């Protein structure tokens, strides 16, 4: 029995669970604390549980059976044994809790002891029933099989060391010759070595598989020239065609000692397999892989355990990785099934392919594999041309006796046909030679006769002329004129004739140079010049088509431009690609989806490496998205950090689906799993959330989990940051509830003009009458975006006089605002303008916002105080509601964000003190002390955790660091008139923080209004040491969770229709990869598009209502 050595029971990582959640979820019985929750347990039917209702009923029924089982057990062993078992659990409580990677501190010790005791008794009773030691049964045979399956799930485990001790305490081992290990292994129907130790039942299966490797050498170090061979492994069909013969491994471990119902044993045996693979002389011997739900469940949980516990030596994962390369299509399964390597119990062959391929989804393969050398040998065998030829012969032409006989007969027939053909050609050639000789003899005789006749004619009549004509005419007919060929280079040269030196030259058409072109020189000189001529247009050289590069570029198009996967199947897209390059190979949407996911994995690995090297802290934002077509929500977790170059980075870590219910426990679990996956659970500084009720409990649970691993600073005191844009939205909406009725005539006036084109023309005429340039047109507000109300007022007020003229031209215009209404609208517009500007500041992603929070919130408070004394009663009521909402959220300024303002060298604590004095002089000094004390507390923790601390008291030298900043001249000048009275104290032995806050002079805001704060800390980091590190982390805190456009909306964040139809993993791959490649701002484009749709909808509604008015 293996003793305790740290955590060994884990929650299944979300990227693995999401592929097939039912493979990790108990169907009847829950074991251990991982299925219990702080508020309630899953078996009580809590609405916050993630288990389906039918499973909750099963769990409740099984809990009742557990109680019956415990009573039966107590009656048999006696109360003394139960007391002894309780003492054992209490003594080992710390080790039991530590066996679970997830904290169980929230469970009281009394409940925890009862939980472990009852679950242990149930397991002992269940497996002893198979030995006939008692008559207890869970239920039917099928139910017993389901319980066995539940007991091996990774999240459904108890530490085996405590289970063994409790077994010994009951004296069960003395009553029979069976040990605790014998009962467990026999109950599961497997055989292990006597020396085998395991941590729990899932680990027991992993050890059995590991033992099956035998003496196969496993290289622990990564060998670069061996590992790529696995990645280049061919599928089973290709290997079979290359002559590789597959054989099922017959040496499966014996299960003769297993017992229990026959159906369960048959199911288990169908899911049992070894990991031993051998390749020798073209024969690949593999274990028999039984494709069924049982083996799928077992392998998935073993792989999940390996991913969490033994990621360096995941033997089962490596086997599935190896098998995944062999099985890529239905034909591969058929090839392996013919040889008994795969047994299909699932029906369709495609289901087996889908099962094997999905076993690998979301799984990280080890850096080394026991199959590296086998893959190398198989690859070498496949690349041998001789092997492929013999494989083709044996597979196609000699697959059986009849096929081989037919092949030999066909070859003989072909040979005989070839011999006959050659003989015919030889005979024809001989006949042709004989005919040629005969023709030559006849030609000689005819020539002789002709010559004799010519001589006779010459003697009789006019010899000279007749003889000449008779000879010349045949000669002319026989004479052949050969056309002189001209070199191609002459197409680009023109002969200029013979020059003064007596040499013939030709001029180049492109550059005008003259070259000697006499016959003795040939054309080589001209050809050589054409290759070097600078003026000659060179033919375009098109790169060779690369299908791999084409696929990569296509996946980038999909990612960058939000194109659907079906884009690659569009008829005209394929036609254009074929026109551009006839070698282009079309791909399907499944292929491009796979390419996108591969790119996602590559970019994710790069970013994980960046975070591993990042020495500072990371800040988070988390917000929920909804889908228009499904009830499934999505959670977007974004990281914010300042890198070594002092650049602010915003990277989306996860955009994963969140199934109902969307409570704090489920959200916290998703966020924590995400942080573990990225290795950030000990690097988090803050998380910014909106004011949803679920987020309050979520941040509490998350803080507890992170703090249990000592991953937070100051005990998580500064973890939670409220979304400022959301609070600002609530404040403005509270006021606009009253303002909506006050602005009715202005809104109706704008709606009247925008209702038709004729009214727009009439209004343009009115603008010309009053001498106003049109510029930006009228804008109608939208109920879900409060800044649209400000835009409507700002534009309508500019055309105030034109509406009065319109009232004279249009009889149907009956909503002209009064002067009082215009004045009230102007005041409301003036009130909303600062909110509009500040919201935009808060939502920035390209510059730090932590340092601007304090001044902007302070400005809002002064603004509300100013308008609270307004003469207009309606405005005062509106501001009163806004002040009430302000006091609810911002009565006490955020300490951590006020600390960020103090680290702005233009503000420091002096400006904070002045700001507090303007609001409330009585409490000002106390609030400054709170900020100062927390700065010191946090700085001391940075000093403690720092490997090296460097303090410096050098006086700060101002630098002109120019860039755009939200603090630029926007802060009231009267606040900074106190600068002349603020003199730095005398220098003494102080910390770097105290020197920065008290001794060094503050930079003047007017002089350094456009200073970039990150550049300041970058240039002075060598002087401030740990303080610079703390500033880097604090300034990366985002004060809002949403992008600028959505900061004005109360409609929530919604996925567009295209992304609604995608699988959750594809949605995450697209959104995350696009963010990593193009930046966070691109996500705002989706939101802007969404709001454009809202505006269009509002305009359509307006137009439809305006048509009726035009008939008046």
UniProtKB/TrEMBL annotation:
SMART domains for the chain: ZnF_BED
Domain hAT-like transposase RNase-H fold: 843-942
Domain called HAT C-terminal dimerisation: residue spans: 993-1077
UniProt xrefs under InterPro entries: DUF247_pln, hAT-like_transposase_RNase-H, HATC_C_dom, RNaseH-like_sf, ZnF_BED_domain_contain
Entry GO terms, CC: nucleus
Subcellular location: Nucleus
GO MF entries: DNA binding; protein dimerization activity; zinc ion binding
Keyword vocabulary terms for this entry: DNA-binding, Metal-binding, Nucleus, Zinc, Zinc-finger
Official protein name in the record: (thale cress) hypothetical protein
Organism of provenance: Arabidopsis thaliana (Mouse-ear cress)
């Amino acid at each position: 029995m293996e003793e305790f050595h740290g955590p060994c029971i884990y929650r299944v990582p979300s990227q693995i669970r999401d592929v097939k959640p039912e493979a990790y979820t108990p169907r009847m019985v829950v074991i251990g604390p991982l299925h219990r929750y702080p508020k309630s347990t899953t078996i009580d039917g809590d609405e916050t549980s993630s288990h389906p209702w039918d499973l909750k009923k099963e769990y409740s029924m099984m809990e009742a059976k557990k109680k019956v089982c415990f009573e039966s057990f107590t009656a048999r062993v006696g109360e003394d044994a139960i007391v002894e078992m309780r003492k054992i659990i209490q003594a080992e409580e710390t080790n039991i809790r530590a066996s679970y990677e997830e904290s169980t501190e929230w469970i009281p010790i009394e409940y925890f002891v009862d939980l472990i005791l009852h679950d242990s008794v149930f397991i002992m009773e269940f497996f002893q029933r198979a030995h006939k030691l008692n008559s207890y049964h869970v239920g039917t045979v099928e139910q017993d099989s389901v319980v066995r399956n539940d007991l091996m799930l990774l999240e459904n485990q108890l530490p085996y060391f405590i289970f063994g001790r409790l077994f010994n305490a009951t004296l069960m081992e003395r009553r029979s010759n069976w040990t605790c290990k014998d009962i467990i292994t026999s109950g599961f129907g497997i055989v292990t070595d006597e020396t085998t130790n395991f941590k729990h039942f899932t680990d027991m299966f992993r050890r059995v598989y590991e033992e099956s490797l035998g003496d196969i050498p496993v290289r622990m170090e990564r060998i670069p020239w061996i590992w790529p061979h696995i990645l280049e492994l061919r599928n089973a069909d290709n290997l079979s065609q290359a002559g590789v013969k597959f054989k099922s491994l017959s040496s499966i471990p014996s299960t003769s000692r297993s017992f229990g119902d026959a159906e369960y044993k048959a199911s288990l045996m169908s899911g049992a397999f070894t990991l031993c693979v051998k390749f020798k002389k073209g024969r690949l011997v593999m274990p028999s892989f039984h494709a069924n739900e049982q083996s799928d469940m077992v392998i998935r949980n073993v792989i999940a355990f390996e991913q969490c516990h033994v990621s360096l030596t995941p033997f089962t994962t490596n086997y599935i990785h190896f098998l995944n390369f062999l099985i890529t299509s239905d034909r591969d399964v058929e090839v392996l099934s013919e040889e008994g390597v795969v047994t299909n119990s699932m029906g369709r062959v495609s289901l087996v392919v889908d099962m094997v391929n999905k076993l690998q989804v979301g799984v990280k393969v080890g850096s080394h594999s026991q199959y590296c050398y086998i893959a190398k040998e198989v690859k070498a065998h496949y690349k041998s041309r001789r092997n492929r030829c013999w494989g083709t012969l044996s597979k196609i032409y000699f697959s059986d006796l009849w096929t081989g006989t037919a092949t030999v007969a066909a070859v003989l027939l072909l040979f005989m046909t070839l011999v006959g053909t050659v003989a015919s050609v030889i005979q024809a050639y001989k006949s042709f030679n004989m005919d040629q000789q005969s023709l030559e003899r006849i030609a000689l005789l005819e020539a002789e006769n002709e010559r004799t006749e010519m001589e006779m004619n010459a003697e009789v009549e006019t010899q000279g002329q007749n003889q000449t004509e008779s000879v010349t005419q045949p000669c002319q007919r026989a004479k052949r004129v050969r056309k002189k060929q001209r070199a191609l280079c002459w197409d680009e040269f023109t002969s200029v004739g013979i020059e003064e030196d007596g040499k013939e030259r030709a001029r180049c058409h492109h550059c005008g140079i003259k070259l000697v072109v006499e016959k003795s020189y040939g054309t080589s000189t001209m050809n050589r010049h054409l290759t070097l001529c600078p003026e000659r247009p060179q033919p375009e050289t098109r790169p060779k088509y690369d299908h791999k590069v084409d696929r990569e570029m296509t996946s980038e198009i999909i990612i960058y431009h939000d194109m659907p996967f079906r884009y690659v199947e569009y008829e005209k897209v394929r036609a254009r690609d074929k026109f551009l390059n006839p070698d282009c190979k079309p791909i399907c949407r499944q292929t491009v989806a796979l390419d996108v996911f591969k790119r996602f994995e590559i970019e994710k690995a790069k970013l994980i490496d960046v975070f591993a090297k990042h020495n500072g802290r990371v800040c988070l934002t988390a917000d929920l998205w909804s889908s228009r077509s499904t009830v499934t929500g999505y959670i977007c977790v974004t990281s914010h950090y300042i890198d070594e170059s002092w650049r602010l980075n915003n990277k989306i870590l996860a955009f994963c689906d969140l199934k109902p219910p969307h409570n704090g426990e489920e959200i916290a679990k998703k966020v924590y799993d995400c942080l573990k996956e990225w290795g950030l659970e000990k690097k988090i500084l803050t998380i910014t959330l909106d004011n949803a009720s679920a987020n309050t409990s979520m941040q509490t649970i998350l803080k507890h989990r992170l703090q249990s691993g000592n991953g937070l600073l100051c005990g998580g005191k500064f973890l939670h940051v409220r979304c400022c844009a959301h609070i600002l939205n609530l404040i403005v909406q509270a006021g606009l509830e009253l303002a909506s009725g006050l602005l009715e005539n202005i809104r109706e006036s704008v709606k009247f003009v925008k209702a038709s084109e004729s009214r727009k023309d009439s209004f343009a005429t009115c603008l010309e009458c009053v001498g106003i340039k049109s510029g930006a047109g009228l804008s109608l507000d939208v109920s879900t975006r409060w800044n649209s109300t400000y835009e409507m007022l700002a534009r309508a007020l500019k055309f105030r006089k034109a509406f009065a003229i319109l009232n004279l031209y249009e009889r149907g215009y009956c909503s002209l605002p009064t002067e009082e209404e215009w004045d009230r609208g102007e005041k409301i517009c003036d009130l909303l303008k600062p909110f509009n500007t500040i919201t935009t500041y808060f939502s920035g992603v390209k510059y730090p916002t932590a340092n601007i929070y304090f001044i902007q919130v302070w400005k809002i408070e002064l603004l509300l105080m100013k308008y609270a004394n307004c003469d207009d009663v309606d405005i005062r009521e509106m501001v009163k509601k806004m002040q009430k909402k302000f006091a609810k959220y911002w009565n006490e300024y955020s300490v951590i964000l006020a600390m960020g303002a103090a680290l702005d060298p233009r503000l420091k604590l002096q400006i904070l003190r002045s700001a507090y004095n303007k609001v409330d002089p009585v409490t000002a000094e106390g609030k400054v002390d709170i900020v100062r004390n927390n700065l010191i507390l946090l700085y001391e923790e940075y000093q403690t955790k720092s490997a090296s601390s460097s303090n410096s008291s050098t006086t700060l030298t101002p630098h002109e660091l120019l860039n755009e900043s939200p603090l630029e001249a926007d802060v009231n000048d009267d606040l900074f008139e106190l600068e002349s009275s603020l003199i730095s104290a005398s220098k003494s032995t102080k910390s770097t923080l105290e020197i920065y806050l008290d001794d060094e002079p503050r930079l003047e805001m007017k002089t350094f209004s456009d200073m970039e704060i990150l550049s300041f800390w970058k240039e002075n980091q060598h002087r401030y040491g740990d303080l610079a590190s703390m500033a880097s982390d604090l300034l990366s805190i985002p004060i809002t969770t949403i992008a600028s456009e959505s900061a004005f909306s109360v409609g929530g964040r919604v996925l567009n229709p295209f992304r609604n139809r995608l699988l959750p993993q594809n949605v995450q791959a697209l959104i995350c990869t696009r963010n990593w490649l193009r930046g966070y701002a691109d996500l705002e484009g989706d939101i802007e598009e969404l709001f454009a749709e809202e505006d269009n909808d509002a305009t359509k509604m307006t137009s439809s209502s305006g048509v009726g008015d035009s008939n008046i």
